[in-house]
C-alpha cells in the first residue's frame, strides 16, 4: 500500500506540472486577447486545482504510511502554501467583474502555486522532473 501511494504521488506530479503550464498558457492567451473569463479559463484552473488536490491527498497518504524524515516538514509547508495560493487566488479571480483582471489574478495564482510546488519538490532534495528509484531498489550509487 505504501509503495502504491508513493508511486502514484510521484507520478501524478507530472500531470500537476503539465496542467499548471497549460493553465498559464491559456490564462496568458485569455488576458492578452481580452476574452471573457469563462469556458477554457475556468476549465484549466479547475483541472489544475483538482489535480493539485488529488496530489495533496495522495501526499498525505504517503506521509502516513512511510517513514518520516526532517525534509518532509519543508515539503509539507510548501505544498500547503501552494494549495492555498491555487485555490484562494483563483477563487478570488472568479469574482472579478473585469475579465482581463480575472485572467491576470488567476495567472498569478497558478504561477505562484507552481513556484511553491517546485520549491516543495526541491525541499526533499529532488528536482521537479527527476525520476527516483523506489524504496528497496538498488541503484548504481548504492552498490
| Average pLDDT figure | 87
The domain tally reads 1
Helix content: over 70%
Please identify the oligomeric state: single chain
User: How much strand content do the residues show?
Assistant: under 5%
Give the helices and strands as they follow along the chain: HHHH
**From the helix content, strand content and strand pairing, which structural class follows?**
mainly alpha
Radius of gyration, taken over Cα atoms and rounded to an integer in Å: 17 Å
The geometry reads as elongated
Distance between the termini: 27 Å
Number of strands: 0
Ranges where pLDDT stays below 50 over 5 or more residues in a row are: 135-143
Count, helices: 4
Main sheet makeup: none
Report what the structure shows.
Helix 1 packs antiparallel against helix 2 (40-65), helix 1 packs antiparallel against helix 4 (99-123) and helix 2 runs antiparallel to helix 3. It is built from 4 helices and no strands. It is elongated and about 50 Å long. It is mostly helical and 143 residues long. It has one domain (2-123). The protein has helices at 2-32, 40-65, 71-94, 99-123. The two termini are 27 Å apart.
Tags for this model:
143 residues; mainly alpha; 4 helices; elongated; disordered C terminus
In short:
The chain is mainly α and 143 residues long. The protein has helices spanning 2-32, 40-65, 71-94, 99-123.
Secondary-structure blueprint:
Elements: H1 2-32, H2 40-65, H3 71-94, H4 99-123
Helix pairs in contact: 1-2, 1-4, 2-3, 3-4
Amino acid at each position: 500500500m505504501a509503495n502504491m501511494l508513493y508511486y502514484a504521488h510521484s507520478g501524478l506530479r507530472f500531470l500537476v506540472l503539465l496542467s499548471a503550464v497549460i493553465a498559464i498558457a491559456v490564462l496568458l492567451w485569455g488576458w492578452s486577447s481580452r476574452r471573457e473569463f469563462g469556458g477554457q479559463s475556468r476549465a484549466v484552473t479547475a483541472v489544475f486545482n483538482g489535480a493539485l488536490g488529488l496530489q495533496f491527498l495522495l501526499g498525505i497518504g504517503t506521509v502516513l504510511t512511510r517513514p518520516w524524515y526532517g525534509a518532509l516538514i519543508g515539503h509539507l509547508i510548501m505544498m500547503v502554501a501552494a494549495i492555498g495560493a491555487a485555490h484562494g487566488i483563483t477563487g478570488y479571480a472568479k469574482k472579478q467583474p473585469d475579465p482581463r483582471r480575472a485572467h491576470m489574478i488567476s495567472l498569478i495564482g497558478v504561477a505562484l502555486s507552481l513556484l511553491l510546488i517546485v520549491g516543495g519538490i526541491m525541499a526533499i532534495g529532488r528536482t521537479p522532473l527527476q525520476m527516483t528509484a523506489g524504496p528497496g531498489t538498488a541503484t548504481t550509487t548504492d552498490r
